[in-house]
Fold each of these.
Amino acid sequence: MRTETTPVIRLEDYQPSPFVIERVELDVRLHPTTTRVTATLALKPNPKGRPDAPLVLDGDEVNLKGLSLDGRAIPAAEFEASAQGLTIAQPPRRPFTLTIETEIDPTANTQLMGLYRSSGNYCTQCEAEGFRRITYFLDRPDVMAVYTTRIEADRDEAPVLLGNGNPVEAGNIAGTNRHYAVWHDPHPKPAYLFALVGGRLGKVGKDFTTMSGRKVKLAVYVEPGKEERAAYALDALERSMRWDERVFGREYDLDEFNIVAVSDFNMGAMENKGLNIFNDKYVLASPETATDMDYANIEAIIAHEYFHNWSGNRVTCRDWFQLCLKEGLTVFRDQEFSSDERSRPVHRIAEVKTLRARQFSEDASPLAHPVRPTQYREINNFYTATVYEKGAEIVRMLKTIIGEADFRRGMDLYFDRCDGTAATVEDFLQAFSEVTGRDLSHFSHWYAQAGTPRVTIKGTYDEAAQTYRLDFTQATPATPGQPNKEPMAIPVALGLVAQDGRPLATSSDRVNAQGVFILDKASDSLTFTNVPSHPVPSVFRGFSAPVKTSLDLSNTELLVLLRHDSDAFNRWQAAQTVAMRLLVALSTGAAVTDADITGLSAALEMFIEDDAMRDPAFAALVLTLPSEADIAQEIAADVDPDAIHKARTELKRRIGSANIGQLWEFHQLLADLGPYSPDAASAGRRALRNVALDLIAGADKRLGERLAREQFDTAGNMTDRLASLSVLTTLPGAAREGALTQFSERYRDEPLVLDKWFALQATILEEGTLERVKGLMNHPAFSINNPNRVRSLVGSFAMANQMQFNRADGAGYAFLAEIVLRADELNPQLAARLLTAFSAWRMMEETRRKHAQQTLQAIAEHPNLSRDVSDIVNRSLE
Ligand code: ARG
Ligand code: ZN
């Protein structure tokens, strides 16, 4: 919908719906351009709603073809219908049936919301407000109904017909080439969980028996011919189902669970009841086409959508302000699953890297908002890292504070009490207050206050008294609409390490048995007794809270932690902190001595020799320097991306040169011999090998190019092939261009692999990249209609190539603006998402800042912006 002024929706204005819908019968006759939908709704007044209210149904681009009430056509004078809604001013104040016939055009639906076509197949996406694009409806999550769906289609065009719930009936329509299927979902659900699919699809499936003995048919549907690439997703689904039974006691509740992969999708996937629809990028995998990272993402997203069956579907959200209630909780659950299936510390580091890169940057930008926002203009713009990732951190902190056993009891109470309801964040917290007897009102600030708190810590050792005191202060920066912040309740998991590396058994009455101190005032301190020597504090172990930390430790002390801390996360963090200090100094022209650099590279050398092979996945993380965007975030003002790039390249060169012999040895030692397996240990070995290759190339271009070229030619899987190609892209010249061409020819019929090829070229850190990206926009495999293609080429350039997107001449900004405006005509959600690449504009140095501001202003003044884009551009400029 495009309007000049879009209204602000506020949490405080929430009102129960004046009507409820108990049952929905849908009859959908699929046709490429004129699909007919007949919706029969069993309505009744809501005793909790306004008694005299009109019936106002939402609609969006639907054509009304017929309307009757209890079987009689409603006279034209008694209702008002437009593409945006249908109002009956004087509806009956008793139960009644409304029958609505609409016509929609799935082929013309380029927004990918509602019913649309992808590679000829019919599919739907209804979250957040897509159901109103299928029929007029009370399209809000607190209106929950039981659905029966009849789907009819051409047998040739759509031999497979899928709906929510259980299959009831199917058959041919005599004398025609059409057939139908009827699906019934006994669980009341909001409209955003509705889905249907019709198309030509292949499948893999298996039977599953739940813990109480219910037999369930599992299936994954994909493009015919790609069935074997769905095996890993199916396996991940089965493991997710078992895990949710074991860890949360949650069982599946229908006869079938179906997953469908489609190639045109705005997000990752969608948890429609019993019929998850996925971006095929998160389903399809084979060693030849998918990287280790792809396998890990597939496992996580399959689990995420499955876990929504309880955290989202059985218990849904009262309104969209409560989005974190299902998303934050479900991300927490999928992270726990991946941690159990893989390496917990390694996974934790990966989570925190994403959190910092995406959420901390959002929280520091004009788009900052609370995990539970209090207002929005376009809800699709709030499917953010803050709602998802910071939302998950809140759940994790809650568990840290109350402990594992009470956390599980609280979750059980929440699920049992709220089952079948549309709940709020308050309902969630209430369950934990009840099982623990704790007041969680202070903790709930995490949902309400935006911004990343900064915790400053100072340690003081008193040798005579054998005590060690830690002084803490906390402050949360101002964010849009929130100039002043209250102190937060911050769990600090901590311990002390002796300067020689031994753990110190210490005690403080402020630290609980799990080693956690709760900082809930603006400043506080705690004292450890019986401390025999000056210790090194290890704070925020496991990243126990989503905060930034300032700690007065020397590099030498941090490097003690890298070597000796019992907490793997803090070992990694220590190396990162030392590297970050050097990178910031190098980027801003501050003094860096040779000894500073050799201090780090010598510590890494020791780490490489002693530890790297014991846990290669962890070692790969330790040996990866903070990204250019991380460094920019740390500098935070007057950022010069060129200087950052230079600094990082230089430090990488130094570390690589100092360790080149050992790195080369790793590269030979860790070569994959046997057949490919996506398990975490094998992936870890490949990760270390490829980090080694990258460091070698940073130090010695000729050796790097030779090894990368060899690896490229002999690689037995996509992980190794892509990693070597990625190293080659850092080395300008014929070898690079030759490898790029070879790669695109080899994978010409593999859109998901070509996405990697587009992305790799868009992230080349060189002057010529913008021209290259513009050229690739004309590549036959590129399409502005396909979100995966646009994100891989344009999204990667804008979000993962800080240096070239933020060119000093503003050409990167102008390019993105042009694509955003083009995409906005077709797919506003995609356009708005791309536009968030500007969110860091205020921290750039002046020339860039001015270019960015002018570009944003020009976008804002453009006529006919979608609500999605106008919301992002206006908030970015505020
Ligand atoms: N609920 C989906 C998920 O699990 C996200 C769907 C969001 N879609 C959208 N168009 N806003 O994460
Ligand atoms: Zn989700």
Amino acid sequence: MASELTYRGGAASPSAGFVGSHLVDRLVARGDSVIVVDNLFTGRKENVMHHFGNPNFEMIRHDVVEPILLEVDQIYHLACPASPVHYKYNPVKTIKTNVVGTLNMLGLAKRIGARFLLTSTSEVYGDPLQHPQVETYWGNVNPIGVRSCYDEGKRTAETLTMDYHRGANLEVRIARIFNTYGPRMCIDDGRVVSNFVAQALRKEPLTVYGDGKQTRSFQYVSDLVEGLMRLMEGDHIGPFNLGNPGEFTMLELAKVVQDTIDPNARIEFRENTQDDPHKRKPDITKAKEQLGWEPKIALRDGLPLMVTDFRKRIFGDQDSAAT
Ligand code: UDP
Ligand code: UDP
């Protein structure tokens, strides 16, 4: 988990996590100085190591739950474990990161007059009673469930962000990110795309939870990064849904993985987890109209790019060249 701060010609700081590292690549490529602040709980140094030695890049091992003093122009606040397996592992740490971590990053932004972008989540809609989800929908969230550390945590982070905006005149931006996949995802983070891809590559059965009829919408990471940067640079606060409206049941996703990796991959049904949202699909009209953004990469095109990366990391370069 990490907060990325960017200084323009100055800097910013994203993270060594999955999304953060792709964001850093884009920011560094356009010439920003970037400070990555990451406690490396779920982020991996390998994700940003290719920038080591670049004078415009700096990485600080720091937990945003503690205060920090820096000088930057923009703060992309991405710090928080985002996979249900990771965030349920230590729920108190998760909510602390969302609340105290966000408070610290907002305090920092206020002190230095930086623009602050919160990466919130589609989970603020809980198990939604409206479909697809529009930003004006207030959600259906269980405040005492096993996912609450994450979804209630992010809801509070949104509240804090708006209170700093109204109370301290801070420039803020809020993105609600829907399920995202791509290279550099943690292989064993327990999320459905990483699980299915790793399972198919390892010739293990694909584990479908429940009846597999629940839906998600999967966005390729480069589309998300483009959306985050447009949001940061634009004039609108949000919140904005950033996700790909293509909706798949988990059984349909399993079929795409079979088609991409191994048509003979078996499917094994497992008991579902508690409070699992039944449906999730973003309405992205607002992002289209106000940010001029929409995703470009369909699941069937993005998945092979992730598979190449997973193959390398699971089997090593040589084996992947041979397969
Ligand atoms: N903070 C920080 N870096 C800064 C400024 C503030 O980490 O450069 C933290 C600070 O420790 C506090 C939080 O951000 O816990 C909120 O700061 P703010 O100034 O808004 O509130 P206050 O410190 O007055 O409670
Ligand atoms: N899921 C699944 N098999 C797995 C992991 C997850 O069928 O191996 C299902 C899970 O029950 C949920 C969906 O996939 O309905 C998405 O889960 P994930 O943990 O990826 O993210 P979420 O959208 O729940 O945060």
